[in-house]
Amino acid sequence: MLLAEKCKNIGQEFKLFVxxxxxxxxxxxxxxxxxxxxxxxxxxxxxxxxxxxxxNKLYNELIKDNSTENLVSNSPxxxxxxxxxxxxxxxxxxxxxxxxxIKKYSIEKVINNYICNTSLAQNxxxxxxxxxxxxxxxxxxxxxxxxxxxxxxxxLNQYCKRGKPLAISxx
Length: 171
Prior knowledge:
Layout: H1 3-9, H2 45-48, E1 53-54, H3 55-62, E2 78-80, E3 85-88, E4 100-101, H4 107-115, H5 120-127, H6 130-137, E5 145-146, H7 148-162
Antiparallel strand pairs: 1-5, 2-3, 3-4
């Protein structure tokens, strides 16, 4: 019996969340073992649509995309480390995302760094077209599966990692 039918039989609605996992922070180490299009045959058909597109397909789409993006949100969420370094809650805790240290700088300065896209990652996404980042960091031959947003974040982190390191670990 299918899961949806089983749930219906007990008076419940079947809901499913499937995600192959982001590819930033510690998850970046899993890049080589990410789900590929070859793995899809082992996954029930009703769940396959949740697994994204191949890197090859996303690469070929984004290599033509000259867009940039302002990552500033009207309702930001911040991560503050035990050392009081502040990061926007978009991705990993890396020097290229750091907005500042609230023990060294005022909260206003840290928030202003966010609003003005001062971190290397925010500034790169605002000023460097995604096609340029994909050209440098994407793999046109990969059949690994990604959600488009996760792939863009992966490419951004790879680009920043290869880019100019910040002079200090956190502004």
